[in-house]
Structure formats: structure tokens, C-alpha cells
Amino acid sequence: MPKPVSLSTVLGNLKNKLAPSVTAGLVMSIWRMAVGEKIALHCKPVNWQGGELKIICDSSVWASALMSNETSAIKKIQSLTKSNLITSLHVQVRVSQKIKNIPNKRRIVHEVSPAMIAESEKLSEHLPDNLRVSFQKAYISQKRYRRS
Description:
Number of strands: 5
Shape: elongated
Distance between the termini: 71 Å
Order of helices and strands: HHEEHHEHEHHE
Mean pLDDT: 77
CATH superfamily of the largest domain: DnaA, N-terminal domain
Helix content: 55-70%
CATH class of the largest domain: Alpha Beta
Largest sheet: 3 strands, mixed
CATH architecture of the largest domain: 2-Layer Sandwich
Number of domains: 2
Structural class: alpha+beta
Low-confidence stretches: none
Strand order of the largest sheet: 1-2-3
CATH topology of the largest domain: GMP Synthetase, Chain A, domain 3
């Protein structure tokens, strides 16, 4: 006959099994509030393990923007989830299948317009001074060189 197990042990085991999926679901639901609308559109949480939240970003520009706000994003996630289960971010850049699969297409070079500059300034206004210029240059460069 199996040895009796206390209810607290059973509930503890259940909590441990459910914690990753509950945490992932909770983080997904508060992601936009934690990192802001612009970053949330381009960076998505995909996995959580051992306190580390794995995030995939559309480009290195958005990955840099997220990493420059890593500490505040983690604090906001912890505040909104009322837990310290997320302690670090692991950010990766997604490889674009569109560019990867169409290597022979020509690039179209767009002139830098005042609207492009204004957009880069608006997107980078929340960044620290030491990252703002780098972000703006990378953003404009990304906008200028598009594949046809």
C-alpha cells in the first residue's frame, strides 16, 4: 500500500508543475504594460525557465532598445505579477525568413526624410543618452535599405 502523502505536499508539487505555464501566461498578458507598446510589437516573450525569460525580437535595433531597459522591464514584470519569478531576460534576434529566402533581390535605397528622422527621435526618446544616437542611426539605416 502506498505511503500517505500530505495535502500540502500534493499542492506543492502541483504548484511547481503549473508555475512555468502560469508564469508564461501571466507574462504574456502583461507584456505590453511592462515594456511599452512599441517594443512589445517587435519583441515577444517565448519561453520562461529558471527565472530567465527568453524573448525574440524582430531586429537588433529592437533587441537593443529592450536590453537598454532590461532592469526597469524586469522590475515592472515583477511588480505586475507580484512575484520574483522573472529575474533576467535572454534576448535573441529573429532571422527574417523573407530576406533569407530571397538573396538575389535588389536593395532599394530610400532617401533619409525628415519624417524618418522624427520617427527615430520619437522611438528613442525613452532611451538613455548614450544609446539614443546609436539607436537612431541603426533605425534609419534599417528604414533606408529595403529589399525590393
